[in-house]
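writing this on my phone so excuse typos. first protein, seq and then structure
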Amino acid sequence: MNISSSGLIPTSVQTFSITMICTGTKSAETMVLIHLYVSTKEKANATIVKFKRNKICLKGFGNESIRLSPNYFGSSSDFALGSVLTLITLALFVVIASAYYIKRKKREQEHTYMTALYDSNPHMFLRPRFARPPSIGSGSYATIDDLQKNPPSPTPYATSDCCRHSENNSNYRVSYYASSQVMLISQVSLGDPRLADPSQRISTLTVPRSAIVIECLQEEGIFGKIYKGKYHQRTVTIKTTKDTVSKRLLNLFLAEGTMMFGLDHKNVLNVLCVNMDNPTKPLLVYPCIGRGNLKRFLVNCRQRKDNTTVSTQILVDMAIQILLGLMYLHSKNICYKDMAARNAVVGEKFDVKITDNCLSRDLFPNDYFCIGDKESKPIKWMALESLVYDQWTFPTDVWAFGVVLWELSTMCQQPYADIDPFEMSTHLRTGYRLAQPLGCPDELYAVMTYCWLQNPADRPQLNQLLAYLNEFYTALCRFV
């Protein structure tokens, strides 16, 4: 029940109990004094409550509660017990009232004008005066033990850009029914196309080497390279490996690179073709998307290496597009398992597509860690059940999507930057989550926290998230 000046204030009623165990070696009656001290920063407002009770133990009854007959105490004792219960209720009321007082004072001291943005980036969410104060403090991390199940209705926020962007992408605005109840979701691990033998996919996608023209190197990792080139006069992105790559990594490269084979959705990027003339250096060819990798694009915007204006509407719109792509994968019974900004690309008109995670470990080594096995995993995007039990389901993708929302609102800051990967499961198990980003509206942060609920069945479904984000996007446009 301790509430220190730097700790978290309870947002709901909390109770405590004191157990005094009898040894059973003798019969005795002991007076117990309970001293309750409630204080705030203003010492004059300290409240002290003292009350007594009798602890009775009987010989031969140890380590258990003793139920005495009603006539044992007599009428005066009954009155004393009633007084004790009344005092306990009063004490709890004082604690809760004091906590509320402290919390209100802290809220009043918060700045309600636009906060300083990450790395002085001008393209962040704006945070004007709220209709109600923020519900989460400004600490390093937030807890979600007492989150309410129903998100607040979105309110309009000022932005630096009008909704002209919605006109360019009105073709993907779809209406989905969001059920009022969260449905129970099966915890059986779902299909993963990376686990299937890619040989049949490769044979279908194989084209002659003469059809592919490599032009210039764009990115290079430890064992992979990405080129810009041409395929039948079409500008494409070409992924390949280095000569030193092991057979295991080569097989992983082909399995992950062709995982989207056979899928057709405007928010999913599929591989165009494969060339296997040199089996140790296969070529995977993809459509070239204007601005390239979403994470690199947002980081460049944050670091002012790219002068593109990214408004609140655009970022929410990106989230909706990623969600639509993820919904399509789930409709095909595919659990993506690695949803992150690094595994998406963005076009000139801010159209976003989910890609495979081929070469992601190589090009984004700080996002993957090996814990307990030889496989590198996106530890800080993974749900608790994935970390502990290696269980992957639709709700684990929902968790990762919550981290993607956090990435978008921070222009791709690194999540849990100061948490050791080996401590992530303990960190999440104790209820800690990513804190509310600077300038992020309360309503959007609420969506993230619902995605990070510990019980997978309590997390929202994708159609519920889509309905809410569409409503939030509409509120932004209506305000402008």
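second protein below, same order as before
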Amino acid sequence: MTMSTALWSFALVVGLLVVTPGLDTAVILRTAAVGRRTRAWGVVLGIQTGTVVWGTLTSLGVTALVTASHILYEILRWAGAAYLLWMAARMIHATFRARPTDTTPDEAVTGDDDTLAGGWRQGTLTNLLNPKMGVFYVAVLPQFIPAGAPHLSTGLLLTAVHIVVAVLWCSVLIISVSALGTWLRRAHVRRALDRVTGTVIATFAVRLALDDRGTT
């Protein structure tokens, strides 16, 4: 496999992964939909920060140790599930107590307004506390490193491809949702959106908590 073939093939694989609706998509869409466009970009940057970390650790061989260790994987899995459940519970709870003049559900969940830093923290935690990302990189990344190629630099290059594809797709999502603007920011629409998104996030949390890889 040549380097060019590896890059294009990996771009196709991660492209399919990125466009498949999942946790990251739900968080980004919901943040942009409630008018927090700056924060939505912060979430995107945070998610890509997590991707850089997973890609770097995998290229160094560290992620393989985590995914191979039952104890380390369990710690990360339960921490991720707890964080997602907390996020979902706060989001849904805020829709029942917030009035249009009160603190918005987004502020109630995170304690931050429309800030890049707040979104970055949320995106980074969401990504790093998801052990499935580590499993994906351990299983997939090495397959696209050509024989004889420097493992670390090639792994980082492939990770950069993933980030470029993800940012392009996230740009489409944010621009598309922002175009709906005023309608999505109506109080009853926002409450419905937060309840649906909170339920989606809770579902991911439960699935993560119940995941059993059978590691030893």
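Residues 3-210 form one domain. thats all i got for now
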